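Researcher: Here's the sequence for the chain we discussed earlier.
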Amino acid sequence: MFNYENSVTGNVKAEKVWELYSTVMSWNRWDIEIESVSLEGDFVTGSSGMIKMKNGQFLPFTLDEVETNKSFTNTSNLGDMTISFGHTITSNSDGGCTITHNVAIGGGDESQMEIMGLEIIDNIRVSMKQLLFLSAKI
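Model: Thanks. This is the structure I predict for it:
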C-alpha cells in the first residue's frame, strides 16, 4: 500500500476552495497534470466522471464521499489497483483555511504502487498552492 498526505494553509475562505473543488471543469486550472474533467450528474456522493490527463491517459473516477465545504474523496480503479484521492478543507480561526490532500493506492504490486504513487505526488504541492491562489481570486 502507498499513502501520502500534504497540507497547505492560506488566507482563503473554505467556501472559495470548495467552489473550485465542486466545479470539476476547473480542476485543470489548479492541477497542471489534468487536461479536462467531465462529471455525470451533480457533485455528490456516487457520481462518476472521467479525467483526461495531459499525457493522454483517461482516468475514470467515482465520488465516494462528498461533504459540502468540507471534504470529498474520489476513487479510480486501474486493473487490480485502487487509487483514492482525499481532499479536506479545515476552516481556521483567523478566517483562512487549511487544505489537505491525500493519496492512497492499494491492491497492486508494492513496487508498482510505489512508482505510481511517487509520480502522482510529484505535482500535489504545486497544485495545492495553485488551488489556494485561484481561490483567493474568486
